[in-house]
Design a protein that fits this description.
The protein is mainly β. It has helices at 72-78, 122-132; strands at residues 12-16, 19-20, 23-24, 29-37, 45-52, 63-66, 84-95, 113-116.
Length: 134
């Protein structure tokens, strides 16, 4: 039985078992919450964008990155351990529950939230969103 996490917010960066086909991937990864659907609150559904720490300097249409050397404050606010890129052309809607989201190792809280997108990254996010939806 899945446990439902408390209400998230758009802009949260979370630890997600992003689907591999239609099942949760065993290895969690960072994901960016793009939209929160509260129609069935307190059981929330979220649209998340795929995140990866692989080939972070190779950005494609709909992508943006968070880099420690480029913006250390935004990097710390995001709660990331590695430079990470997010792909807004690769999003999925998932129940915000323990089936799809987990607590990161070493977390001081018992929720899947790593951090939050820093306001200085809003232009990059908006550009990636426009590119992904054009």
């Amino acid at each position: 039985m899945a446990y439902w996490w408390p209400e998230p917010a758009a802009g949260d960066i979370v630890w997600c078992h992003f689907p591999d086909n239609i099942i949760p991937h065993p290895k969690p990864r960072p994901a960016l919450i793009v939209t929160v659907f509260d129609d069935d609150a307190p059981e929330f559904v979220v649209e998340v964008a795929y995140g990866t720490s692989q080939k972070t300097r190779s950005l494609h249409r709909g992508g943006f990155g968070i880099y420690q050397a480029q913006n250390s404050i935004a990097y710390k606010t995001a709660g990331l351990s590695y430079d990470t890129k997010f792909n807004l052309t690769q999003t999925v809607e998932l129940p915000f529950s323990t089936q799809w989201f987990s607590v990161p190792h070493g977390s001081l809280t018992q929720e899947p939230r790593l951090g939050v997108l820093h306001p200085s990254l809003m232009r990059a996010l908006e550009a990636a969103y426009r590119a992904a939806h054009s």
